[in-house]
Amino acid sequence: MVEKKKMIPGSKRKSVESFGSEQKKPKRITPVPVDKPAAYVPAPVPTAADPVVPKSKKEPKTMKDHIVRADFMPLDTTADQKALAKQRKKSKVIPVSNFSGSGKSAVIYVGRIPHGFYEEQMRGFFGQFGDIKRLRLSRNKKTGKSKHYAFIEFESAEVAPIVAEAMHNYLLFESMLQVKVVPVEKLKPSMWVGANKTFKKIEWQRLERERHNRMRTPKEQSRHLALLVKKDQARRKKLQAAGIDYDYPELKTMIPPSSKKITFNDNDD
């Protein structure tokens, strides 16, 4: 017979099944509630009873339409920032006027301005009534001559009606000045483009004379002579076609020959 082993009092025998039951169970992690996205709702299909709305023309996209509006912005936003900065630079706002809160305009229109009455003279003449903030005499962009009308803005709106009443139909250099107060609703930023700037007259005749009389390079000189010869040949053909027998020395014979290049060798004595 097989003797049974005596069990020591106070000790417990661990079975194979007990090892599996003593392992620690993993803790259960409760999920964090997340906002569920809205369910997709398909667009309603138009029926015969619904009125048909004509499609409008596509509106031109602006610079702001290309920028995505979302709760987050991508990391690479340099292109959008440069585009917005360029757009702000183009749409630079010029203040319209310095009218008071009561709605009174401080801008007057001066018409039929004679020659010789320019920015400096106007500032000194109309400055007797009050401080002038902006003054713009309209000029021709090419010639720089006066267009005989100007806009003047005073610091105080109370001065404008006084000037209009005192200087309207004023005889100046055989010209009747036409002075009126410009209403607030007719003020535009384009009225003050180039205001408070001294006009610099460009001497186009002097510039053209200097360009014509400048020292030409050999390449420019040869091109100029070739053009003269071409014109001379065309002139001779017109005379022959008209039946005019007129002979004059050709331009080719009058052109001096080009200088020959002479090279020297170091071995030559």
TrEMBL record:
Gene Ontology MF term list: RNA binding
Annotated RRM domain residues: 106-189
Compartments in which it is found: Nucleus, Nucleolus
Cellular-component GO terms for this entry: nucleolus
CDD domains: RRM_NIFK_like (cd12307)
Superkingdom per UniProt: Eukaryota
Segments for region (Disordered): 1-61
PROSITE patterns referenced in this protein's UniProt entry, alphabetically: RRM (PS50102)
Keywords, in A-Z order: Nucleus, RNA-binding
Biased composition regions of type Low complexity, renumbered to the chain: 31-54
Entry-linked PANTHER family: MKI67 FHA DOMAIN-INTERACTING NUCLEOLAR PHOSPHOPROTEIN (PTHR46754)
UniProt protein name: RRM domain-containing protein
Gene expressing this chain: LOC112280371
